[in-house]
Design a protein that fits this description.
The protein is mostly helical. It contains 2 helices and no strands. 52% of the residues lie in helices and 0% in strands. The model has no long low-confidence stretch (mean pLDDT 87).
């Protein structure tokens, strides 16, 4: 089952990787959903941990 997303058109080319601020924003979203007690929460926690291990801290 593929999810469809309404992605707004951009006048600038997309980078192949997330920017640091995008990665931190995604990490916050994953941590939010990871706080929920269901199967999607478990997956969100796993991806949040993987992302946190690969992205420099915002405190730097």
């Amino acid at each position: 089952m593929a999810a469809e997303f309404d992605v707004p058109e951009s006048t600038e080319p997309r980078l192949p990787l997330l920017t640091l601020s995008e990665a931190h924003e995604l990490l916050r979203v994953l941590q939010h959903f990871g706080a929920m007690d269901h199967d999607w929460g478990a997956q969100a926690r796993r991806f949040a941990a993987e992302l946190a291990a690969r992205v420099p801290s915002q405190d730097l």
